[in-house]
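Notes from the 1:1 (GR / supervisor)

We went over the backlog. Supervisor wanted to see one worked example end to end before approving the batch request, so GR pasted a single chain during the call. The sequence is below; no edits were made to it. Supervisor asked that the structure be written out right there so they could see what the output format looks like.
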Amino acid sequence: MNEEDTLRLARLFLADMDAGVREAPAFPLLLDLAVARAEFTRATGEEHGAEEAFREAVGLLRSGGGTGPWLYRGAAQAGWTALRLARARGAEPAGLAAVDEAVLRWIADYPAEGGVDLPMGLLGLGVYALAHPDAGFRDKATSGVLDVVEERVERDGDGLLLRLGDSPARRADQSALCRVLGAAHGTAGLVAYLASAAGTAAAPRARPLLDDAARWLRAQRVGFAHSIFPHRVETRYSPARATWCSGDPGVALALTAAAGVTGDARDADLARTTALAVATRPEEDCGITDGCLCHGAAGLVWFGRRAHDDHGLAEGLECARHWTAWLAERRERGPLTYFNPAGMIRDASFLEGDGGVALALLYAATGTRPAWEQLVLARPVTPEA
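Structure output shown during the call:
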């Protein structure tokens, strides 16, 4: 598919997202819609009504009660979205006091059962803090995040790592207390966060942690037929799926972020090697079962374009084209369904549904580096980025 066809497909998935949100409007989905519309406006120059969706989301929140503090489906996502929208219109953000207070409160008294992860955990709160224009808030929150990180990480002979917590859900999928590598819940996500924190006033604390965490991540390289890393240390002889959340794409993005800070050729070389492995991995070996951004085909459309833009890999563009065609073929049969523990369902969301598909295709078509990459720690998180 050419760029025009890819953009047309992106618009179709945005329309699917909009229809899904209108069918069952909810605060998290309206936030996702605001993010998606803002990106389409930014990449195409066409007004898509992001502010309207955001106001509707806030209205639902006010009428329906509280929400968690998280970067995904929570207050931190609302705050981050407000920051992006204010920047787009050249205005100062307003009305963030309640979000800032909630985030600081959670960081200061972070629950023992809380995860040090990205979507609904500590690192997501850190992302919001790093994107904040107020230096006082940013420094205080980042310092608090690093306090918790220093308490929760473990060290072994390879460096510094995260271990998953224990919960019924973790026991059910046999991941409780495991040492996972991925960007969503594992050490790759921590590496990417620390790479951003190392560019702030917290650098004296963040940089040594980054060096040790990146060293641990490099040491987990195994090298399978078509991939580089396992999902977790405990299953190190089985390759991870080719997904942002738990596999080589997320690890490659984290190592790319680390290399930008450390200047370490080992990080840069391994990031490129891993990106090439992802871009050339046969479809049947990728473990892709749906179209979403988090763990599906859209994630590989996005990552393929990133592999080209970051590392000059022509194979990355071919990867993006392949998975774009995969999505187009399935969309011809009607709106997509996405994996859910209860079965394949319609989903309009950013990480796991139509929204992420639309945004990955938009990037593939236009080459405009997405602002939403901050939300998945795939680009440096700063107030200016």
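Supervisor's comment: The chain has a mean pLDDT of 96.
Batch request approved.
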